[in-house]
Predict the structure.
Amino acid sequence: MHLGLDFRTRHEAYSQPVKKNETTGGAQYSKRIHVQIGIRYKPFKFQMEFLDARVLYNYGLSVSSRMEDRIDLLQLYGSVGTDNFLGSGLPTELQIGKFTQAFGKNRLIARSNYSNVPYSFVGAHWTLGTRKDWEVRAFVTRVVEAGLDFGMDLSGGPTLFMRVEPDFPGE
């Protein structure tokens, strides 16, 4: 069993306008709380993560869904995995549900450390191999668009996001 709690308060400010039609700088205090619960009973794993991200003080900035997402279920997935896939000695895992992920060098797909609300995806994610030696990752997902109000988030429309990626250390 895994239990986790993470709390972050952050102050951001700038003195000059950075967006079109802004006339002044801005400042903001924000907080983010993550609560994680995970249960593993080989070969099955169940993971839940709750998020409460709020703007505590705001001056000169428009609040978006990247800054505030009150009482949300960030991750909820089940997975099945083994350390010896078809007798090959390779580990594999298949996740299905709502989850966050990071790919490649985290330039395009990652759990953002800069915005107050991380990105979530709904779909399936499969891995084969180990990150230490080599790994193949494949996924078919849909981006979840976080809402500003309490309630269910919306799937990002009919567009599917998919990729198969081999990963070799040192690249």
